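>> Question from a student workshop board

For tomorrow's exercise we were told to take the sequence and the ligand below, predict the bound structure, and bring the output to class. My setup keeps failing. Could a helper post the expected result so I can at least see what it should look like? The ligand is KG4.
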Amino acid sequence: MLDTPTHISDKSVLVLGIESSCDETAASVVRRYKDGRVEVLSSLVASQNEVHAPYGGVVPEIAARAHMQKIESITASALKDAKITWSDLDAVAATAGPGLIGGVMTGLMAAKGLAVSLNIPLIGINHLEGHALSPRLTQDCPFPYLLLLVSGGHTQLLSVDGVGDFTRLGSTVDDAAGETFDKTAKIMSLGFPGGPALERMAEFGNSKAIKLPRPFKGKPHADFSFSGLKTATARAFDKLGNSCEQGKADLAASFQQTVSDVLCDRTQNAMNMFSATHDAPYRFVVAGGVAANGVIRSALENLCQDNHFTLIAPPLKYCGDNGAMIALVGAERLLLGQTDGLDVKARPRWPLDMGSAQNNPASGFGKKGPKS
Ligand code: KG4
Ligand code: ZN
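>> Workshop helper replied:
Here is what the output should look like for this input. Compare the format with yours to find the bug.
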């Protein structure tokens, strides 16, 4: 770690953030004022949906190649959109993990090249910390808060007590919620990416039509399990046979309602744990791609009201993967003097809470997928 650079302005820092851990190549310029205000000067996301759609899921090699093709132009465009020049930047931040290793390496290497050529600090960011701090891009969201991180690779409940200060209260023991949406949508041939496609289908369905299992519901801890639900939904789909679209819509709505119920049940326990160790006022943040789901958002809103938590959710454009959340964590770390050397490594696995992960390796590393 290097010291805080002395050349940065006394009022604010300007950071370029690069994100490439899965199937979005993203770059953004963020200004973070020392008084806490944040301005997103540009945020560009190049989605790879088209190239992965024929396979019904993200193909790591194809993703890495697509990141390589886009990374240079998207970073240049992010600066152009922000109306700044390279020499205005105070630091460059890039996702260093967890994620698909080829993609992470592509973004991180690009950031290293920029840091060397511009002679500015480099900061390797934990992608999950990007999601965790994402609400701070657009609104006042002071520490501490309870976080539900619910994405394609992760489902975790964490107490967020500061930059880099996380305590895990619960996590999935198998699949992530987003992954369950994606796989279920694939089984039902709803298209890719699965989450939004399934939500659209569910709009026309009856969420009480098909009874599905709610794993861990009623258990006193805050862990999740989704693999049984995925299998049960696949079986229910087989039983539908060649039934009409309404049957499919009912199954989609029932599945979505089940995920929502499970998320709320587990979050209720985490709220009890959080309020036992923190003072009011209580804040609850939901972040990650699945936070874009309308049914889940409104169920969490009701849960917050019942438990006297204030719900804080990033706008939809910052729920999924984006460069702004990476730039923001970079700026926060730069202001704390936490920069990295050029030897910072790309990591396929990188738990947010190293301490509790090491104490409890069985569940500590989140899940078995590519983004664990
Ligand atoms: O945070 P994200 O963009 O990438 C990861 O870090 O994983 O999350 C992507 C995940 C995918 O599984 C996608 O299907 C899911 O978020 N997702 C949704 C919705 N929009 C995205 N799941 C349910 N409903 C949605 N509307
Ligand atoms: Zn993500």
